[in-house]
Design a protein that fits this description.
With about 290 residues, the chain is an all-beta fold. Helix content is about 0%, strand content about 50%. It has one domain: Porin. A 16-stranded antiparallel β-barrel has the order 1-2-3-4-5-6-7-8-9-10-11-12-13-14-15-16. The protein is globular, with a radius of gyration of 19 Å. The protein starts with about 40 loop residues before the first strand and ends with a strand.
């Protein structure tokens, strides 16, 4: 679960209601103590139902309520992961995101509607799919229509040992609904497709200032927690023609909500062709900034 761009769960608070004698803490999982307009996600905790291993994401903000960092701590993983967001002056949208300790840097360009139109990624050794021996980068161009997003990606690589270099171009298309959620994506180069269904509940990530900088397509490498979906996933289905071990990946989400309408807990199942079914719990923490 390293690249969740995210993404990215906690122990369910017991008790379906709280009396006037019981104090509600801002650290109570999934319980917002202020109206939804003032509630911001501050922590997401994921717990594997079998191993009990946990992954936690902490959201840090500045005095303008801009996300400055997302810290990922994964049990059993030797290094913490830190996503840092950089701004020009009081600008709302980040112009750069860095990913420590992997030395990734994303540079973001937006259009007048604050939609992401260009993303460039440079890293030291690992693009996520292909390993090289020197610094590499890729660019992603996004164009938008009423019912689709077209993503043109150029992978620029250089191998220091052989002194060879080149560019791998790809074009992928995502179909979207009227709310802006990705329904279907075909990844041509990797011979994969991804299909998602949604409910009408608000995604707490969608109200954050970094939302336009997140990848708009629903690809599991980015993790559904940290992509541009205004609403929450109910199912996710990925099919790959490259792998011989698993050809399908199906995720289902059983979500419980707090009184503000935001998710409190999500029980997630993951099944893969030829493999077992995995379960984990995701819990959400909110507070007023």
């Amino acid at each position: 679960m390293r690249h969740c761009f995210f993404i990215v769960v906690l122990i369910l608070a017991t008790g379906a209601f709280i009396s006037c004698q019981k104090e509600i803490s801002a650290d109570t999982p999934g319980v917002s103590v202020v109206p939804a307009s003032d509630s911001f996600i501050v922590k997401i905790l994921e717990i594997d139902s079998l191993t009990k291993d946990s992954t936690v994401f902490y959201f840090d903000y500045d005095n303008l309520k801009r996300v400055t960092t997302i810290r990922q701590l994964e049990q059993g993983y030797p290094m913490d992961t830190l996503y840092s967001f950089y701004y020009t002056g009081n600008a709302t949208l980040p112009f750069k995101t860095t990913h420590h300790p992997y030395n990734d840097e994303w540079f973001h360009v937006y259009n007048a509607q604050n939609k992401l139109i260009l993303d460039s990624l440079s890293d030291l050794a690992d693009t996520g799919h292909i390993i090289y021996n020197s610094r590499n980068y890729k660019t992603e161009e996004f164009s938008y229509a009423t019912d689709k997003i077209i993503i043109k990606t150029s992978h620029h690589w250089h191998d220091a040992s052989s002194q060879t270099h080149g560019v791998i171009p790809t074009t992928d298309t995502s179909l979207i609904n009227t709310a802006g959620n990705i329904l279907f994506t075909r990844f041509n180069y990797f011979k994969e497709t991804a299909t998602q269904t949604y409910n009408t509940r608000p995604n707490p990530i969608a109200k954050l200032n970094i939302f336009p900088a997140l990848h708009p397509y629903g690809f599991y490498e980015a993790d559904e927690t940290f992509i541009q979906s205004p609403n929450l996933w109910i199912t996710g289905y990925q099919s790959s023609q490259q792998t011989t071990l698993y050809t399908n990946d199906i995720r289902q989400f059983n979500i419980t909500y707090n009184t503000d309408g935001y998710p409190a807990r999500s029980v997630i199942s993951l099944s893969q062709t030829g493999g077992p079914v995995f379960y984990w719990n995701r819990y959400y923490y909110y507070k007023k900034l």
